[in-house]
């Protein structure tokens, strides 16, 4: 498994001339003919994920139902050295589930069983196709919930969340997906079935669960996922504060954290986002003339929430909030959150297309970064709407543009690239929760030295010596990144590329 | 780096006949002659760590001061294929820092600088030899602290904490070491210097920081460690509840967690531990006639703590506590904790020797496991004192014995082994916070299948193809585990052993 089998070395040329008929027959024998998709029309549904600016059909789509079927499918891929990748609901925003040419796409849509609910020990075991929100639905009656809550939680799959280490509004206080996954049953790139982690947090040996979460399908496929569920808070208040400038909202965020209060969530939406949401949903909650609103959710025991809500309100007012309204009842709270959750979709009202960026900055750099982003918006001539997980410094600038204008996407990508470099320059990250996927691999050298990246690629080679598990994702290569700014650093990785550059 | 270089394949025979003089001269050139230890008398200080039942002198001890010096030392080890390992303060309880015969011991005692304190972003960067408690001391004036707090915190090193993924009393609420390490500068087993993670939590790519923490020196040596520090709580109360039986204390623990309260710490000490502590420290705090005491620390804002302390007190009384006393002032609180922190050391009063076990069980299984342990104690004829992190189900049974009686250690080890198997049988773990080291490698097949272990060994091979970084630790081999119960499972790992069995 460790040494790369040179005879299996591959290329697009070989894949182009491959005879898929016998391979498809093997897949049909594993999952049944109706669960193998081959026609061009049907494959259309799988040609991209939530990153719609890239499109590519796979050679074949296979829909397994069990770990054993996934293992058999992957063994076929291994035997023929076929690149493969898994896809959950296809809502990912970095192209992690973007198929490769002549690849096998393993879709988990039929793996939607909740296998075990263990309330006593606060564990739930699910198949990867289970929808994020179903986990909470399955345990909320007993007073529990599953914390990571991407905006897409009513449609995204737990398997996809694991692959991308998804975040969400409540990750400020409770952590991202990796903090809630205790164990995984995995199919490795040679088809072997292994268990990593377990049903308890204190597992000895290497933390392979941790390395797998966020590995974007490059180390194998998770077929059973053991999640930690949390006790629902006794009381929740949501505060909406509105501000005349975004910097004041940013200063409030630092003020709240500085006071030792960690809210369940703390989100900023700027004027453009507010108006997009009100145009679409007409919630009536968000003041259209505010430069920014801050949504702060406080959870805990009744007394604690009442006290902290009062303290947070006064921090908001000290920092210049015009108004602070508090929602204590569930309907009111959901109404306040509804606009935030629909903010991306609402951008469709403002512009035919938008490009969502996902960067992280130290919280304290928020005012500086907002000003710089405004300058970049002016320089490139594209408006930028801002929606962000302010508490953990995770920005989601939405660049509005029209994709039907030739050259627009390239300019917008260049603008997005400048925003990411700005994040790195102030000590942040090129991704907070959407992953690297196909979209950001060329920015990896902004954050990692060649030897740092080389170390990651060693680990990849160790799990996947043939380089068939979602190849070309995460890591930069000279071919995929061309003569980009950092191609010199990328070329230093040369010796490792023979493997990841092949497809 | 990936393929194992067969020509470098090694054996104890080769190491026995090695000429150390030129190697020692190279070490002296790197760190200076006074920082290389070679005499048998001086080496005595390094022949074991906190697991004193195993002893072995290394061939040489080297004391570097910088990352570059560690890298140069490791390059020499790599060139001559010499097994090496790092040692911090030598307080580890699983033999992780137990030298091998003819090995190079790299001691971090001179790497004690706090390199950076960044209060604004709540980060501290330290060298590995920095003492755990120094981190809190460096930031407590500004209202911050470092959460992981092993009982040995006034002497154990942060580097050792990282290697063993150490826990402590406050890990119930705040997590173990891995939850507080953001980034690492590493010297890999070939001497390469790489950075993993960073100064922020949201780093893209594989979570190599996570895999390194707890890898017990088998993947390399951390030479700079970026830690997350937390805001100190506004208010802390410590409750001491005493019970007429241990089961009632256990039921109280489940009651508190079930009420949605997560205390900063929640510890049980049984009657034997209480009396050992009172014999030694005479704190006067712990009632000698109690079957068990429960120490519960509640932290947060003043109102929140006052409220939760009241709720916890009532849960204690509902579950049959005879008395509940509450310490609100810092001296009182420290006095209550002092006995718990000194509990292991106090066992010296009761018995010439003790063997401390470290297992994890699901919280709900506590009453059953305590009864089974009592039965095992009777069966083997050795008393067992119990001190445990009850909130997270992490048991520390202390088996009392006299090592000068021939055969006693073997019997005690057999009893310890039965306790671990009991933990695994109820769905727990063979280690909560002390690591596997040399002590527990033979129990790994109790928790992991051969293919699960094989996956870990692949990862190891990937970082350390020559198998020179702390070899023989963590993983079971036929030689180290002999014909133990699980030797069949161990033998199934055969193909991987060529590497880890060599030394």
From TrEMBL, chains A, B:
<dbReference type="GO" id="GO:0019154">
    <property type="term" value="F:glycolate dehydrogenase activity"/>
</dbReference>
<keyword id="KW-0285">Flavoprotein</keyword>
<dbReference type="InterPro" id="IPR006094">
    <property type="entry name" value="Oxid_FAD_bind_N"/>
</dbReference>
<dbReference type="InterPro" id="IPR051914">
    <property type="entry name" value="FAD-linked_OxidoTrans_Type4"/>
</dbReference>
<dbReference type="Pfam" id="PF01565">
    <property type="entry name" value="FAD_binding_4"/>
</dbReference>
<dbReference type="InterPro" id="IPR016164">
    <property type="entry name" value="FAD-linked_Oxase-like_C"/>
</dbReference>
<dbReference type="InterPro" id="IPR004490">
    <property type="entry name" value="GlcD"/>
</dbReference>
<dbReference type="InterPro" id="IPR016171">
    <property type="entry name" value="Vanillyl_alc_oxidase_C-sub2"/>
</dbReference>
<feature type="domain" description="FAD-binding PCMH-type">
    <location>
        <begin position="54"/>
        <end position="232"/>
    </location>
</feature>
<dbReference type="InterPro" id="IPR036318">
    <property type="entry name" value="FAD-bd_PCMH-like_sf"/>
</dbReference>
<protein>
    <submittedName>
        <fullName>Glycolate oxidase subunit GlcD</fullName>
        <ecNumber>1.1.99.14</ecNumber>
    </submittedName>
</protein>
<dbReference type="GO" id="GO:0071949">
    <property type="term" value="F:FAD binding"/>
</dbReference>
<keyword id="KW-0560">Oxidoreductase</keyword>
<dbReference type="GO" id="GO:0009339">
    <property type="term" value="C:glycolate oxidase complex"/>
</dbReference>
<dbReference type="InterPro" id="IPR004113">
    <property type="entry name" value="FAD-bd_oxidored_4_C"/>
</dbReference>
<dbReference type="Pfam" id="PF02913">
    <property type="entry name" value="FAD-oxidase_C"/>
</dbReference>
<dbReference type="GO" id="GO:0003973">
    <property type="term" value="F:(S)-2-hydroxy-acid oxidase activity"/>
</dbReference>
<dbReference type="InterPro" id="IPR016166">
    <property type="entry name" value="FAD-bd_PCMH"/>
</dbReference>
<keyword id="KW-0274">FAD</keyword>
<dbReference type="InterPro" id="IPR016169">
    <property type="entry name" value="FAD-bd_PCMH_sub2"/>
</dbReference>
